[in-house]
Structures are given as C-alpha cells and as structure tokens.
Amino acid sequence: MMIYTCTLNPSVDYVVEAQQIELGKLNRATKTSYFPGGKGINVSRVLKRLHIHNIALGFIGGFTGQFIADELKREHILTDFITVPGQTRLNIKLKGERETEINGEGPVISDKHKEALIDKIKQIKKGDILVLAGSLPPSIDDTFYVMMMEEAKKRKVAVVVDTSGSALKQAIAYEPFLLKPNQMELGELFGVSIHSRHQIIEYGKKLIDNGVQHVIVSLAGDGAILFHKDVILIAQAPKGMVKNSVGAGDSMVAGFLAAYVNEAPLEEAFRYSVAAGSATAFSEDLCTEDGVHRLLSEVTITRMEDAV
Ligand SMILES: Nc1ncnc2c1ncn2[C@@H]1O[C@H](COP(=O)(O)OP(=O)(O)OP(=O)(O)O)[C@@H](O)[C@H]1O
Ligand SMILES: O=P(O)(O)OC[C@@]1(O)O[C@H](CO)[C@@H](O)[C@@H]1O
Questions:
Q1: Confidence tier at 20 by pLDDT (50, 70, 90)
Q2: How many beta carbons lie within 10 A of that of residue 280, not counting itself?
C-alpha cells in the first residue's frame, strides 16, 4: 500500500515575523523562514515524520520549485513531480499580532503537463490512497480534480480531499474516504454560513448521508468533529501557545492517515489527528512525532450519542 499526495499548486511558505505590521510603512522583520509548502506537500512531510512512506506528486517550477524538491529530498521524502516552466508560488505568512496570509497564484500549466499528471494518477493501484490537497493554479479548472477522482475510482483507490470551493463540492459525488473541511469550507459546501455547533453537526451528517466515509470538520483552537456512519466524535484541542498554525489542517489529515494505515481504532486515529494538528500549531514548522505523542493525552474526545 502506498500513499500519494498530489499538490497541483505547491508553494514556498515565506514566514515573516514582525513586532508590528503597518500597511503603507516600512516594516522590519524580526525573523524570517522558508518552508516547502502546499497542502499535499505538508501532508507528505508529516506522514514521513510519522514513518509512513508516501510519494508527493504535483507541479513544480523555477528556483522555488527546486527549493521544494531539495528540501523534500533532504527529508528523504519520495517525490515524482512534473517540472513546468514558470515559478512555483511564494506564499507570504505574516506573523504580527495576528496571522495574515498572501498566497500567490502559481504558474501556468500546459495541457501536456496536465496529461502527464493524469498518467501518473493512472499508475496508482487498488488499495493505495490518494490525497488531493490545496487550490488549483489559475490555468487549471475544477474539472481536473474530477478527472483525477474518476481515475482513482476506476482503480478503487481511496481518495482524501482537502480543498475548497467548487472542487470540494464536486468531490462529494465520488464518496471520498476522507474530507477535512474547516467550519467555513463546510458552510461553503452548502451555501450557508455556519455559526453554531448544531449547524456543524447538521451539515457534517449530510456529507455522510451523501456517501462520504469520514468527515473531519476542523475548528482551529476549538478542536474538531469527526463524522462516520456509526459515530460522531467531538474533540477538544489541547491548550498551548500558537507559534505557526500554517499546515495544522494538513497535519490532521496526515495524523489520521498514519493511524489508519497502522490499523488504529477510529477514536484513536481521530485523537492522533487532532494531536498532530495542535502539535503543528504549537511549532514553527510542521509537527514532529514527539510533539504529537506529547499531546495525545491532552486531547479529550466525547461521543455524540445520536449517531448518523
Ligand atoms: N489555536 C490552536 N490551539 C490548539 N490547536 C489548534 C489551534 N489551531 C489549530 N489547532 C489544531 O489544528 C487543527 C486544524 O486547525 P484548523 O481548523 O485551523 O485547520 P485549517 O483551517 O485547515 O488550517 P490550515 O489551512 O492552516 O492548515 C484543529 O482541529 C486543532 O486540532
Ligand atoms: O492556496 P492553497 O493551495 O489553498 O493553500 C496553500 C497553503 O496556504 O496551504 C498550506 C497550509 O495548509 C500552506 O503550506 C500553503 O501556503
């Protein structure tokens, strides 16, 4: 069994810390760092830290793309990227009093390169897992996610989807193994804005009724809710000092998959997932295995009695 992650629009995450950030002024950073990023790439990095072999797929280009390839190689992560003309985007993560993000657009991807990626998806085998994560570069429309999900379905490959907008909406029909919307993305899926726990439960259940196998609605510092046809589990996140929450959601996906492939019971896989998300939020880079293990006992999980 192999896990593949696919990031159509990777990024170099440029994290800039400053005591105060004022628009229209010269601001000086107190600290800057670069990380290989993009949602699927984050999932790959966390899986590797949790000792789960995986292969990262996607498009990279230019010096920023090379940085990603080099960093993943340094971390011994297998990759099978398609190199495209243009530059992989640089996403700015500003850490002032609050976290502000400016994500780039990403390079133009030609039809030839899109086909090359579909060919790679066609090589994935029954029993493997494919994680489709992140936004699409502007030259690729949402039907590309549909094409990949169709290929996966034909081959009985379990699909995990962590994206937003209409690509996420279209994923439901393919009965994915796991969806991980945050509260806002869950609302977007149904064209509503969600303000209460009651609404999260209502719409999370609807996804299960539509055939999605597992749904994790992530709620940042408030934890997460897991939906499955037999059970709904509510997790409180551990308390701690947030250093950089970029990639917390991706770490949840990786944590859940790592525990799942190690055949952990559902509740333990969910605990691992929440601990991984929080361990990332409490770290500058993504979580480490030790960081996840330290938080496991601080994740409180309760069962909602009226299951779906
Ligand atoms: N402030 C926090 N305190 C504790 N845990 C947190 C905090 N923020 C995030 N987490 C953990 O990370 C998980 C995912 O966070 P969140 O809901 O922000 O995901 P997301 O919106 O997908 O984030 P991203 O796109 O940055 O990866 C939460 O369910 C929680 O376990
Ligand atoms: O623009 P997208 O693809 O929606 O999100 C990209 C991104 O914000 O997501 C990751 C965190 O989840 C970061 O590594 C990256 O910069």
A1: confident
A2: 30
Question: Looking at the 3D structure of the chain, how many domains does it have?
Answer: 1
Where in the sequence is the domain holding 196, given as residue range(s)? 3-10+38-88+105-304
Can you tell me the distance from the alpha carbon of 186 to that of 279, in angstroms, rounded to the nearest whole number? 23
Please report the ipTM that was assigned to this predicted complex.
0.97
Q: Which atom from ligand 1 is nearest to the alpha carbon of 219?
A: 17
**pLDDT confidence band for 164 (50 / 70 / 90):** confident
Is residue 20 in some structural domain?
no
> Residue 86: pLDDT above 90?
yes
Average confidence (pLDDT) over 55-80: 98
Which residues have CB under 6 Å of ligand 1?
A: 182, 218-221, 223-224, 237, 242, 245-250, 252, 274, 277-278, 281
Calculate the CA 113 to chain-centre distance. Answer: 23
Ligand 2 binding pocket mutation candidate from 246, 250, 251 (most atoms within 8 A of CB): 246
Q: Is residue 31 part of a domain?
A: no
The CB of 223 under 6 Å from ligand 2? The reply is no
Indicate whether 99 belongs to any domain. no
Is position 100 within any domain?
A: no
Q: pTM of the prediction?
A: 0.97
State whether residue 299 is helix, strand or coil: coil
How many helices (H) does the chain have, and how many strands (E)? Answer: 10, 15
The pLDDT of residue 97 is: 86
Whichever domain contains 60, its CATH number is: 3.40.1190.20
Structure tokens at 24: 């229209």
- Which ligand does the CA of 224 lie closest to? 1
